[in-house]
Each structure stands twice: as C-alpha cells, then as structure tokens.
Amino acid sequence: MDFKRNLLITGGAGFIGSHVVRLFVKKYPDYRIVNADKLTYAGNLANLRDVEQAPNYVFVRADICDYDCMSALMREYEVDGVIHLAAESHVDRSIKDPFTFAKTNVLGTLSLLEAARAYWESREERYDGKLFYHISTDEVYGALSLTCPEGRRDAVSAHEVYGDEFFTEDTKYDPHSPYSASKASSDHFVRAYHDTYGMPTLVTNCSNNYGPYQFPEKLIPLFINNIRHRKPLPVYGRGENVRDWLYVEDHARAIDTIFHKGKVSETYNIGGFNEWKNIDIVRVIIRTVDRLLGNPEGFSDELITYVTDRKGHDLRYAIDSRKLKRELGWEPSLQFEEGIERTVRWYLDNQAWLDNITSGEYENYYANMYGSR
Ligand code: NAD
Fold first, then answer.
1. Where are the bilayer-spanning segments (predicted)?
2. 33 C-alpha to center of ligand 1: Å?
C-alpha cells in the first residue's frame, strides 16, 4: 500500500507518545506511522493495544542513540516526517543518573537528526515536504517567582494576575536540573540543524501533562496508586511549588495542529493556563479518588507526608501559549476538573495496567526513592 506520508514517531510507547501515535494512526489512515521505541522502564506496548493491529501502524524496538539503526529506519520506511518524543523524562531520575539523560536526550537526539539529515540530503527532493518536529518541555526556561493564586486561570485572568510573569517563546533558557539541561541542549541541536543545514525543524515546549497511561513515578498516577494502597503521599518541601497542567490528549491535539500547520523553524509554547500548587493538586486527587472509591473513612489527607525538597526544585513554571492560539487556533479543550475526574477514573478502572508496571523494577525504584513503606 502506498502511503501519503511516512512518519517516524519516537518514544511512542511512552505516556505522551502513545497518545500521539493513537491520534495519528486513527485520524490519518493514509499515513504510515512507524513507532520507534527502546522500551525502557517507561515504555509499555500495553499503552497501544487498541491500535497495534491497524494496517498503517508499525512498531520497531529501537534505540535512538543507535545511528545505524535510525538511518536504516529512515531508508526502509522512506520517512518524510519525524515527531521526536523519545527521552528520559523524570527529573528525580536525572538527579541520580545524569549520564543516562545526556546520552538519550542529547546524543540520541543528535543521532536522529544526523540520520534524518543524511537520508533527506540523499534524496532528489532533499528537504521538500520534510519536517523534524522535536517535543520539549517548559522546564528549559528555568523558574518564575512564586506569587501564585489558587487554582485554574484562563488566559485573560492569568495575565491580569501575573502580568508578564510567564514563559514566552522568547524567554531565555535557564535550565536547573540535569533533565532540563539535557532537553535544553537537544532543543539547541534541533535549531542548529535548521540554521546550519536548512533542515525544516520545529520545537514545542509544553507544560506538565496528566492523563491515562502515565508511568506512576510522576505525581498524579503515583498518588492515585498510593491512595488506593493506603500508602503515604510524599510531597516535596511544603508542596508550595507551582506547575501548569495540561490534559495529555490536548497536548496530542496541539502536536497534530503544529505538525500540519506550524511554521518551519518556529517555536511554540503549549500550556493549559492552569496553575496549581502541588499541595492543592494533591488535595484534589485525594478528594476525587476517595469520592470515586466511596472511601468510608472520609478523605485520605492523613496520608500526606512532607519529604525533603528535591534538589534545585524550581518554584513556578507557567507557560504563555497565546501564540499557538493566535497563529494556529489551538487551545486546551478540557477543564481541569473534568480532566482530573477522567484521569482518576481511568487509573481506578485500569488497575491491571497499574499493577503490571508497579511490580518488579518499580518496587526497587520506589524503595530507593521513598523507603519501603
Ligand atoms: P515517558 O518517559 O513516558 O516516555 C518516554 C518514551 O521514550 C518511553 O516509551 C521510552 O521507552 C522511550 N525511550 C527512552 N529512551 C529511548 C531511546 N534511547 N530510544 C528510543 N526510545 C526511548 O515520557 P513522556 O512523559 O511521554 O514525555 C515524552 C516527551 O515529551 C519527552 O521528550 C519529554 O521531555 C516531553 N515532555 C513531557 C512532559 C510531561 O509532562 N510528561 C511535558 C513536556 C514535555
């Protein structure tokens, strides 16, 4: 079968990647979607059960750091677009093992860029109709001051409260963790490939995602799972850090919009205008889980356990995504209350998925991070 486009999506077995793969496989039956994923602890093919038989979907277990393998994939599938999500993504792990983050996020991205460049430059049409789209994080921008009001803000009221206290596409990079430093470096490499070789590239920087299929080392699934097992909820410091949260399917929709309509060499910020202090998010999760489980003991606030703050913990991230709305018409579709309800329900309804990945290596990781309670 001849496909209209051949897209290589890296990291498609991870949290966000699986939502992007699902959306593209279903929405574009005339595109071939090649999902290349190393299947690290964070990659899980069970995230894609509903699309794995689709005629336009191919899974390849592959390491982005393996240049020969990436080159072979480019040639074999005649790749004309790359959406690059594969990465080591957990800040806590980056503090314990920065080398792995530099290797995957920096060298892996470079190997993929080189493989795409070599293949595309070998073609008669060269870069025509090609795109290398790199997915990144708002954490590259550093931290903002902590003047956070409670709860969700829409774009207008958030700007009334904070003035210019947002990350825009022009904010200077100032990463603080090994994770954000590695992502910042990979962003620079991607832009350098545009400026040096003329490769059509795009970079987007997104805020914290939440939703189904997230590995339960990240705050929301970790806490849902812990409440279910009546385990302590480890909150860093006093829980004052502020993050902007976006429902993962809204991020996938933004990626679709930007892939098809974004201007080459541009950067777009993606965010929810939905800032929460960590401790408030924890309370929302507790209330939602307890309500849905019909917990007879009332709310599980007694499980909250304050732990020593993360090293170099950035106070506040807040992203200004008005450019994306203005230029490409994207905005978040889901209110946080609805998104969190859907998310909690999904984890409670998919306990086998959670139980599967929280056995084995996860238990060692958990004991190492939080002790064996
Ligand atoms: P994740 O950890 O859930 O998934 C990462 C995926 O990459 C896994 O499937 C893993 O197996 C794969 N992978 C890791 N190393 C690989 C390698 N060397 N070769 C091939 N595959 C490899 O991550 P996520 O949360 O889905 O994040 C995806 C991307 O989005 C990352 O680039 C991350 O920096 C970025 N991002 C994440 C968030 C968030 O809130 N999760 C926010 C903004 C940006």
1. none
2. 17
User: Is 70 exceeded by the pLDDT of residue 95?
Assistant: yes
**Separation of CA 4 and ligand 1 centre (Å):** 27
Q: Looking at the predicted structure, is the pLDDT value of residue 305 above 60? A: yes
**Where do the structural domains in the chain lie, given as residue ranges?**
5-208+247-272+316-338
Q: What would the DSSP string read from start to end of 293-306? A: HT-TT---GGGEEE
User: Ligand 1 in contact with 43 (CB < 6 A)?
Assistant: yes
State the pTM of this model.
0.94
Burial (CB count within 10 angstroms: exposed 0-12, middle 13-18, buried 19+), residue 331: middle
Q: Among 37, 63, 139, 290, which one carries the catalytic annotation?
A: 139
Residue 140, phi then psi, degrees to nearest 5: -65, -25
Q: Find out whether the beta carbon of 111 lies less than 6 Å from any atom of ligand 1.
A: no
- Between CA 249 and CA 16 the distance in angstroms is 8
Summarize pLDDT for 202-221 with one digit per residue, the tens.
999 999 999 999 999 999 99
Average pLDDT, the chain: 92
- The domain defined by 5-208+247-272+316-338 carries CATH number 3.30.450.20: no
Q: Is 271 in the pocket of ligand 1 (CB under 6 A)?
A: no
